[in-house]
Specification:
Layout (H helix, E strand, L loop, with lengths): L2 H4 L19 H6 L27 H14 L4 H18 L10 H14 L6 H20 L26 H11 L3 H13 L3 H6 L5 E2 L7 E4 L11 E4 L3 H13 L10 H14 L8 H14 L4 H8 L3 H17 L1
Antiparallel strand pairs: 1-2, 2-3
Helix pairs in contact: 3-4, 5-6, 7-8, 7-11, 8-10, 8-11, 8-12
Length: about 325
């Protein structure tokens, strides 16, 4: 017999006797929570006191205050998670009870060398570069708070090799791609958004119809918006070319998107671009990132300031360091 059968209530027998009904307490009924009550109760989370660290504090004792510093300085959740993980690794290596005041720069260098060569597996260069960034950030914070006399990690230099430069499209190939994309309004919208506004794939995926402003058909614009308040500092409005207005109107009529402009997976965006590239008979490897790089290089060639380009691309100052170097090299080789 199944569990479901065991839970069925047996019919009452004529000889079944029931205990006398209990007296009803009206107050008890009134005090009972209704399953469908519309009353809103605000439950306040317990307050956690953050103890300011001192030179005698251990690394782990610094974690709550450091996490709050990262939160207030608008670091992403991913960065906060990675930096706190790095802090735990450093604490395990130096000793969980080692006071901050006894740590020296040589300890930090040995930790990096241990992670790179002695831990049992070799981490990616990107991971090692991030851990060096963590050290500069954490010990820079300690110094700014007066807990240490100086940033012990200030002199640490650990860079990761830059990836090879992409093979850029020339003006003829760009024109071929734009022409081929006009055969399908979805392809054309995608190409124009990246070539003329430099949107990232993540931003394309989050783009909504109401983020596009066609109130002046001759000067369409796109507003890049984020729900995550950490990323809201990257919000920006960018101009689009005249031909986007007609392309988007045709796209709406044909594909009828409801909320999102591209209601598909990011892999589908790659397929849409690949079809346009094949029609254009371009032999180079063309990706959405390459079109974004093309946008950046063309902006620099037009004389835009580096800081303005960083804001247009929606990059943090940390991410911009590597990107700026790449674009300088691409400009020099063009």
């Amino acid at each position: 017999m199944s569990d479901q059968d065991d839970t069925k209530e047996a019919p009452a027998s004529p000889d079944t006797t029931y205990p006398p009904a209990l007296p009803i307490d009206a107050n008890a009924i009134i005090g009972q929570q209704s399953l469908f009550s519309t009353e809103v109760k605000i439950v306040q989370a317990p307050t956690i006191e953050i103890v300011p660290p001192t030179a005698e504090s251990s690394l782990l004792e610094c974690a709550p205050a450091y996490q709050e510093y990262l939160r207030l300085s608008n670091h992403s959740r991913y960065t906060v998670t990675c930096f706190l993980s790095d802090l735990r690794l450093l604490s395990t290596y130096l000793g969980e009870h080692t006071p901050i005041g006894r740590i020296v720069t040589a300890d930090l260098t040995r930790w990096l060398m241990y992670l790179r060569w002695e831990r049992g597996h070799q981490p990616a260069p990107k991971t090692m570069a991030r851990r060096a960034t963590f050290l500069k950030n954490f010990f820079g914070w300690l110094a700014s708070e007066g807990i240490t006399a100086e940033n012990l990690a200030a002199g640490i230099i650990l860079t990761r090799p830059l990836p090879p430069l992409p093979e850029m499209l020339d003006d003829v190939e760009i024109k071929q791609l734009e022409t081929a994309a006009t055969e399908d309004s979805r392809s054309q919208c995608l190409v124009l958004l990246v070539l003329y506004a430099g949107l990232k794939k993540e931003e394309l995926m989050g783009l909504q119809i109401n983020h596009l402003d066609l109130s002046d058909p001759a000067h369409p614009a796109v507003s890049v918006q984020f729900e995550d308040h950490i990323k809201q500092r990257k919000q920006r409005t960018l101009a689009l070319p005249l031909e986007f207005t007609d392309a988007f109107q045709r796209y709406i009529q044909k594909y009828r998107p409801q909320i999102k402009v591209f209601d598909c997976t990011d892999r589908n965006l790659n397929y849409i671009l690949a079809r346009a590239v094949r029609k254009a008979a371009i032999q180079k490897r063309v990706t959405l990132q390459l079109l974004r790089d093309t946008y950046a290089v063309r902006q620099l060639q037009e004389g835009i300031a580096l800081e303005t380009l960083r804001e247009k691309l929606g990059l943090s100052e940390e991410a911009w360091k590597e990107s700026a170097e790449k674009y300088r090299k691409l400009i020099a080789s063009s």
